[in-house]
Design brief:
2 domains; binds iron/sulfur cluster; Arc Repressor Mutant, subunit A; 3-stranded antiparallel β-sheet; 9-stranded mixed β-sheet; alpha/beta; globular
Length: about 400
C-alpha cells in the first residue's frame, strides 16, 4: 500500500515528545475474554519476528520525522513480550535505544505475564535499560483466573512481583480487572488488598469488557456464565476507588491509579493525543495526524518488512476537526480533563464553539464540568464515561 513517507508530515504545534511502541503478538494461550491481536505460540515464539521489528525500526529511525525528535517513552506491549527469552528481548530493547534518540530520563516499560518471568529474565531486562514493569495479574483469585482462562495462578503472580522487586524494578504497575464472572465485592477487595501490600507505584483497574466473538461472549450469550449486574459493578468501582485512595493512590484516568509522580508517561501521551511510532504486527502509528496501521498477521508482517516494504494495511490522514474531536475524547479520560488553552493552541477551536448545545446539555445534566480553563468529566459521569464520550465522537 502506498502511504506518504513520515518525512512529509508537518509537526503540529503543542505536541510533546512522541512515544515508541512495539507490539509482541504472542501469548502462551488465548484468554477467554481477549480481543487483542495475540496468537498462542508454544513451545516458543518465532525469533524472526523480533528481527523484523528491529528491521522496521531501522527503516523508520532513518526518516527525517524521527531524526528530528527525541522520544520520551518506549513501551513493549502485547500479547506477552516476556514470552521471549530475556536475552532476545533485551537485544531488541538495546537496539531500539541505540537507533532512536530518547530524552535522558525516558520511561522504558515492558509488559509481563506472571508465568513467563524469572528473576534472571527480569534482571536482563533491567540491565538493558527497562525501568518500568507492567505485570498482568488481573486477579489474585485462582477461581477467577481460571474462569477467564488465564494461564497463570495466584502463586505465580506473587512470585513474579517478588522477582520484579528483587531484579531492581522500582516502578511497577499491576493490571487488575473487575466485573469478572462470579466475582464478588469481597473477591475484588481481597485482590486489591494483596496488590496494595506490594506498594506498586501504579495500578490499572479495568472493567471487564465482553468483546463480540470471544469465548466469553459466547458463554454469556448461552447463559453459561453470569456477570455482576450494574449495581454490583457500580459498587465495586466506588469501593475500589475508596480503597486505593486510602492507600495513597490517585485516580488520574478512568482506569488508572498512581502514586504522585508515577503516572504512566507513555499512556499520558496517548491520552493527550500526541504522536507515537508503533512497530510490529497490528501496531498503530500516529505521526502528527497521519495514522498508519500495520498488518495483523505476524508472518505476513515479517515477510513485508523482510522485502523492504512498508507493512501498513491502513493509512489515514486525519483532518483538523477529527484530530480535535479525538483530543477531546481521549483527554476526557483523564480526571484533570482537557486544557482549553492547549486545545485552542493546537486546533484554534474550543469545545463550546465546536460542540455547541451537545456540550451545554452534558453540562446541564451534571456530566461535564466546563470552566474557563478546562473541561472534564464529573464524578457522577465516571461510571458511565463511555456513554458520555460517545456523544462527543
Ligand atoms: S495474556 Fe493478554 S494478550 Fe495474551 S491472550 Fe491473555 S488477555 Fe490476550
Amino acid at each position: 500500500m502506498s502511504v506518504p513517507p513520515p518525512d512529509a508530515i508537518t509537526p503540529e504545534s503543542g505536541e510533546g515528545p512522541p512515544g515508541l511502541y512495539v507490539h509482541i503478538p504472542f501469548c502462551r494461550s488465548k484468554c477467554g475474554y481477549c480481543a487483542f491481536t495475540s496468537y498462542p505460540c508454544l513451545p516458543a515464539p518465532p525469533a524472526d519476528y523480533l528481527a523484523a521489528c528491529a528491521q522496521e525500526a531501522s527503516r523508520i529511525a532513518a526518516s527525517d520525522w524521527v531524526q528530528a525528535r527525541q522520544f520520551a517513552t518506549l513501551f513493549i506491549g502485547g500479547g506477552t513480550p516476556t514470552i521471549y527469552a530475556g536475552e532476545q528481548l533485551a537485544g531488541l530493547i538495546r537496539e531500539l535505544l541505540a537507533r532512536f534518540a530518547f530524552v535522558p530520563d525516558a520511561e522504558i516499560t515492558v509488559e509481563a505475564n506472571p508465568n513467563t518471568v524469572t528473576r534472571e529474565k527480569l534482571a536482563q531486562l533491567r540491565a538493558a535499560g527497562v525501568n518500568r514493569l507492567s505485570v498482568g495479574v488481573q486477579s489474585f483469585s485462582d477461581r477467577l483466573l481460571s474462569a477467564i482462562g488465564r494461564s497463570h495462578t495466584q502463586a505465580e503472580a506473587l512470585a513474579a512481583i517478588q522477582a520484579a522487586r528483587a531484579a531492581g524494578f522500582e516502578n511497577l504497575n499491576l493490571d487488575l480487572i473487575y466485573g469478572l464472572p462470579g466475582q464478588t465485592l469481597a473477591d475484588l477487595r481481597e485482590s486489591l488488598t494483596i496488590a496494595v501490600d506490594f506498594s506498586p507505584e501504579h495500578l490499572a483497574l479495568y472493567e471487564l469488557m465482553v468483546e463480540p466473538g470471544t469465548p466469553l461472549a459466547r458463554e454469556v450469550e448461552e447463559g453459561r456464565v453470569t456477570l455482576p449486574d450494574d449495581d454490583a459493578m457500580a459498587e465495586m468501582e466506588s469501593k475500589a476507588q475508596e480503597l486505593l485512595a486510602g492507600a495513597g493512590y490517585q485516580r488520574y484516568e478512568i482506569a488508572n491509579f498512581a502514586r504522585p509522580g508515577c503516572e504512566c508517561r507513555h499512556n499520558l501521551n496517548y491520552w493527550h493525543n500526541g504522536s507515537y511510532v508503533g512497530l510490529g504486527a497490528a501496531a498503530v502509528s500516529c505521526l502528527s495526524g497521519l495514522r498508519l496501521k500495520s498488518v495483523a498477521d505476524p508472518t505476513r508482517y515479517a515477510e513485508l518488512v523482510g522485502k523492504g516494504e512498508p507493512p501498513y494495511v491502513e493509512a489515514e490522514s486525519l483532518g483538523l476537526h477529527a484530530r480535535f474531536r479525538e483530543t477531546v475524547i481521549m483527554g476526557l479520560r483523564l480526571l484533570e480533563g482537557v486544557s482549553l488553552a492547549e486545545l485552542e493552541a493546537r486546533f484554534g477551536l474550543t469545545p463550546r464553539g465546536y460542540y455547541g448545545t451537545t456540550v451545554e446539555r452534558l453540562v446541564e445534566r451534571g456530566l461535564l464540568i466546563l470552566n474557563d480553563d478546562s473541561m472534564r468529566l464529573s464524578e457522577q459521569a465516571l461510571p458511565v464515561a463511555h456513554q458520555v464520550l460517545a456523544e462527543l465522537v
